[in-house]
Amino acid sequence: MKKWHMTVTQNEKQKQSTLNAYHTGIRIEETFPNIERIEIGYIRTHQTSFGPNNVKEAMVLKPKFEAFFIIPCLNRECSSVGFDLSNDIFDMYRAHQKEKTGRMNCCGQEAPDHPEQSCSGTLEYTIKIEYKSID
Ligand SMILES: [Zn+2]
Question: How far is the CA of 9 from the centre of ligand 1 (A)?
Fold first, then answer.
């Protein structure tokens, strides 16, 4: 029997519906009232047949922004929605931690037609949180 694979379109649709579930519309200030600013600097890498690809980026999140902390994988065909930094941010907030550096391997599959091959995407990141001063 032929193994069933998702098409690129089906893969995109599935990722979109997973992402929609993460978009709650809840703002950072509602979940984390003491946060003034979150800065995330990150480097995404992905091994392609043309060699490694990597992109260095940064983002700043303000209290009015949605509490959404997923960075998409650099591999566009990947089956995963990306790297979820929510747990890191929750842990930092609980510990009132100001800076954290980490690295994640993508948990997705390389492409819809390569379900047995795990994605080679990685994320290296530094999260900086500024807290509101309590007077
Ligand atoms: Zn990936």
Answer: 16
